[in-house]
Amino acid sequence: MDYHVKDLSLAEKGKLRIEWAEQDMPVLRQIRERFEKEKPLKDLVIGACLHVTTETANLMITLKAGGANVYLTASNPLSTQDDVAAALVKYFDIPVFAIHGEDRETYYKHLNMVLDKKPNITMDDGADLISLLHKERQDLIDNVYGGTEETTTGVIRLKAMAKEGVLRFPVIAVNDAYTKHLFDNRYGTGQSTIDGILRATNRLIAGSKFVVAGYGWCGKGVAMRARGMGADVIITEVDPLKALEAVMDGYRVMPMEEAAKIGDFFVTVTGNINVIDKHHLEVMKDGAIVSNSGHFDVEINLSALKEIAVETREIRDNVKEYKLKDGRRIYILSEGRLVNLAAAEGHPAQVMDMSFANQALSAEYVYKNAGKLEKTVYKVPDELDFEVARLKLNAMGIKIDTLTQEQKEYLSSWQHGT
């Protein structure tokens, strides 16, 4: 088998961790049981660029159970769990091309190794596979039926491509499914970000001023969890509607230029560049802890911080100290990459269960509709979204009401009045 992982001797530990996560992924389990019987993905080649974690492993196992030939690489060099990568190769015969901490050259080498397998469906977290296909590997695009995209940043990139008319195949925006962003982005990012900060720093959050840049679903989750731990939460935003919502939710809202002067903790969750810029870093107080849970390592202007720093040192795992000329110290977590994955283990399996159920069902949908979809970005079909919610409720032992025929007729008619 063609693969590139750190050490196959780590496989046993990885296998146990995959099994542990699987216990909390009942929706994916139900889909896998159906896939094993029906083989809806038979002979399909799927190239996946996702965070190589225990939850992702269970998605790969599900896709393979459906008959697909699956090839996995990492969407972030610091999120790869080497034991999980080894276990997928050794125990599940799923080729993985990912090593924790790999450099940029190796990262793109691994992307290309997956594309070399001529995938029929791409599965992205950040649109790197699709971007590479469109920029450098266009000869392979005719093999592709479509793709799926896991995260907000990737969806933004893909919608920009579709708007410019350069997207060469249809993509399902898994991130936009209700059973993804309402739960994964809010509860998953909220909990795992706090988990990463605590593992990296062991600092007390209660009583601190905790600045969250961006009040999308991820920002809402981080703010909610920080407030729950006793922090004074401050929101920075560029969207007036989201800023207003944050105010109505009881948070203080101010520009980053003001928040930078008083914050103890900072988390960026915007997907944009230089959200914390040089002039913000210059006014931060001694000991400020700065992290990112958005996407890529671009939200904090690290180049500018290196310019104004006179000394740096790695003071703890995932904590780098930058000392400024006047003696103030700023601490960057996980090199500005996703702190919830680099310093912790990413989202809990319970929420990734729904996200990855959407991935599996969307891959099936793309395959079933090959050649019928336009070259644009689609939302996850409502029937798939509702099916994931139904399966999740079923796994939780929760029953809900159903509309009577009379109620259905009332809602669909304009003649009943009020």
Describe the protein's architecture and organization:
NAD(+) binds at residues 151-153, 185, 214-221, 237, 272, 293-295, 340, 347. It is found in: Cytoplasm. Residues 185-346 form the S-adenosyl-L-homocysteine hydrolase NAD binding domain. By secondary structure, this protein is of the alpha/beta class. It folds into two domains: 8-180 and 347-395, 3-Layer(aba) Sandwich (Rossmann fold), CATH 3.40.50.1480; 186-342, NAD(P)-binding Rossmann-like Domain (Rossmann fold), CATH 3.40.50. Helix content is 45%, strand content 16%. The protein contains 17 helices and 15 strands. It has helices at 11-22, 26-38, 54-65, 82-92, 104-115, 128-135, 152-164, 178-201, 217-228, 240-248, 256-262, 278-281, 302-308, 339-342, 349-368, 382-395, 405-412, and strands at 45-50, 69-74, 96-97, 121-124, 146-149, 171-173, 209-213, 232-236, 252-253, 265-268, 288-292, 309-316, 319-324, 329-333, 377-379. It has an eight-stranded mixed sheet with strand order 9-8-7-10-11-14-13-12, sandwiched between helices. Strands 3-2-1-4-5-6-15 form a seven-stranded parallel sheet, sandwiched between helices. The radius of gyration is 22 Å and the shape is globular. The model has no long low-confidence stretch (mean pLDDT 96).
What key phrases describe this protein's structure?
418 residues; alpha/beta; Rossmann fold; 2 domains; eight-stranded mixed sheet; 15 strands
